[in-house]
Write a structure and sequence with these properties.
InterPro entries: Chitooligosach_Synthase_NodC, Nucleotide-diphossugar_trans. It holds the Pfam family Chitin_synth_2. By secondary structure, this protein is α+β, with helices and mostly antiparallel strands. The protein has one domain: Spore Coat Polysaccharide Biosynthesis Protein SpsA, Chain A (Alpha-Beta Complex), CATH 3.90.550. It has a five-stranded mixed sheet, sandwiched between helices. α5 packs parallel to α6. It is globular. The two termini are 28 Å apart.
């Protein structure tokens, strides 16, 4: 049947004003529903998501890294988007929706296709975009904390990232149709999410070409990438008041040598 079909069946059988979507491995803090429901009191809000953390953070070095990745995604990207009432993806592990809005969007949600086939991934991002397209605001509530199980080895993590990348690129065209009515920051944000990996890839390819053709190391590009990584991680460590975020620098290497080639493929 699939997750999307199950969601649709549950929504159609529900009768409340609000619908809470959680994954099967999500652990909610006791006040999550209350905090999300308070945000949803504004009738202009169609969806609201909570802050995500890794429930198995202490398992491996990778789960610790992913936990930091979630914190950054929530408290930098989503928090910034929420200032304009347009979180671009209310994440599946913990998101609350206005049922009346959901019901009006179910046909579009159910019939989404990708490359000629019914879509079976990226449900949360697509549903969020549909909410924004329908004129509703989407919000982020950092006080509503939910913990979810994250991949503890590289194989499952890379497969997860590939699904998310496909979802992001697929729904970008739909998102662009909304941007004219939203703040200019959101336009830059969407462009950056899609152009950023391309520019990084071009920098790496240019560096490799320089090394192959001249035998010299592209130190300028290497130092620039390293400096940007250190600045970002230092800011995160300061904001979170946790020095562990300095270790997120390792993610840059994973991004360059694993995620970028995978996404290109």
């Amino acid at each position: 049947v699939g997750k999307r079909k199950a969601q649709i069946a549950a929504i159609r059988r529900s009768c409340g004003d609000l619908v809470l979507n959680v994954d099967s491995d999500t652990i909610l803090a006791p006040d999550v529903i209350t905090r999300l429901a308070l945000k949803m009191q504004d009738q202009a809000v169609g969806a609201a998501m909570g802050q995500l953390a890794a429930s198995n953070r202490s398992e491996t070095w990778l789960t610790r890294l992913i936990d930091m990745e979630y914190w950054l995604a929530c408290n930098e990207e989503r928090a910034a988007q929420a200032r304009f009432g347009a979180v671009m993806c209310c994440c599946g592990p913990c998101a609350m929706y206005r049922r009346s809005a959901l019901v009006s969007l179910l046909d579009q949600y159910e019939t989404q296709r990708f490359r000629g086939k019914p879509s079976d991934f990226g449900e949360d991002r697509h549903l969020t975009i549909l909410m924004l397209k329908a004129g509703f605001r989407t919000e982020y509530v950092p006080e509503a904390v939910a913990a979810t199980v994250v991949p503890n080895s590289m194989g499952p993590y890379l497969r997860q990232q590939l699904r998310w990348a496909r979802s992001t690129f697929r729904d970008t065209l739909l998102a662009f149709q909304l941007l004219r009515g939203l703040n200019i920051y959101l336009t830059l944000d969407v462009i950056g999410q899609n152009i950023g990996p391309l520019l990084l890839s071009l920098s790496i390819l240019a560096g490799l070409a320089q090394f192959v053709t001249t035998g010299t190391v592209p130190w300028t590009a290497c130092l620039m990438i390293a400096a940007m990584t250190i600045v970002r991680c230092s800011v995160a460590a300061f904001r979170a008041r946790q020095l562990r975020f300095l270790g997120f620098s390792l993610h840059t290497l994973i991004n360059i040598f694993l995620l970028l080639p995978l996404k290109a493929y």
